[in-house]
Amino acid sequence: MTTSFILLLLAVFLGIIYGFYYLQKKHVKFSTRVFAALIVGIVFGVVIQLSFGIDSKVTTTAVDWINIVGNGYVGLLQMLIMPLVFVSIVGAFTRLEANKQLGKISFTVLATLLGTTAISALVGIVSVFAFNLQGAEFAKGAAETARIAELAERQGMVDGVTIPQQILSFLPKNIFADLAGTRATSTIAVVIFSAFVGVAYLGIKRKAPEEAAFFAKLIDSLYKIVMRIVTLVLRLTPYGIVALMTKVTATSNYEAIVNLGKFVLASYVALIVVFIIHLVMLAFAKVNPLTYIKKAFPVLSFAFTSRSSAGALPLNIETQRKAFGVDDASANFSASFGLSIGQNGCAGVYPAMLAAIVAPTVGIDVFSPTYILTIIAVVTISSFGVAGVGGGATFASLIVLGSLNLPVAIVGLVISVEPLIDMARTAVNVSDSMLAGILTSRRINELDESVLNDEEAVVSSSI
């Protein structure tokens, strides 16, 4: 009977996949298909868990097969990350009409990413106070014990690493190794290398305009090819989301979520507050928050289900350019830098919350304004180089807790609810990078109002 149930679930899943293929053929809006995939995935996953349980062979085997679609889709997007980062940043330099804009773009993007990270850290700390989580104790089971042992090994990798040494790790020592993603800081290393190539292009443009023009055409051709691949992969988004959401809801430990419900609730409240802050900042920039939510929904929903800021990079850039009218340079810089710098959820809210929770257990007065400012400063500085893939929040937390001389065991104690919280964290990360792009484009007067205010101007227009 077990095999029969597995085959039945897979048959239902294939039917769902065909349903979304039918909707695509009928030219149903991309955003509508994404939203439908989110809902269908949740329902299907809940039905699987309620029918067979979280640990049954039926559930684990069926989800393993379904995961081919979900993880396969994320893998295809991750395949594009390094090529897209490179051609996007270098292409931004080749398309700059005035070199003086480069300074404004870089400063505004970085200031937005780091400034909102500092605010996010403060929001996380306040959330801990509001829910009275400081000094809280969490249950430790077999999974948590194993996670703590694993973290002890990872902690050894960051122990004794000073901030200057951390900064040095960002530099590309072997660009081919970094293009292959062999280091935790490979993404930011590729960003830095791409920026060097772009600056070199600007120098050649002044001294050898013919060679520079040839290089610009080459990069433009590469950019178009990469973006065409992006479009082909993005067409798979509804299929990927329904598979990812099915896995999440079918394998989530709801009992653990209830046991850690207060922590989960505090985390979501903090992340929602940060998202509202994004909307307020957009309102000050004369961008309608409701328009932003509507147009950003496809990329935010993908980030939510995939838990990968890096995987959302192609959709992020396309959304900024085609839905919000952000200029190419600002969109490419903000999305690329946002992968490794100033992630509001993973590198802002989360490590700040853990630091505020665990500090009282070692006799520290977490209500001290000086200590609060210390947490915010350490969190902001440590947000450099956080990988935009699963595990980035853990890496950031280890660095922050280690820098503050706090025990890291708490990171392992919340493992059972980590996926649930990570979904919202990732969506907030992506929102912040889009916020940086919009604000930057507005500052340099390159934001296309006709695209921004056109309700039909959405990323689905080409998918």
UniProtKB/TrEMBL annotation:
GO terms for cellular component: plasma membrane. InterPro entries: Na-dicarboxylate_symporter (IPR001991), Na:dicarbo_symporter_sf (IPR036458). It is a multi-pass membrane protein. Its main location: membrane. Pfam families: SDF. The keyword Transmembrane applies. It is found in: Membrane. GO terms for molecular function: L-cystine transmembrane transporter activity; symporter activity. Keywords: Amino-acid transport, Membrane, Transmembrane, Transmembrane helix, Transport. The chain crosses the membrane at residues 6-23, 35-54, 74-93, 105-131, 184-204, 225-245, 265-285, 371-389, 395-415. Belongs to the dicarboxylate/amino acid:cation symporter (DAACS) (TC 2.A.23) family. This is L-cystine uptake protein TcyP. It comes from Vagococcus allomyrinae.
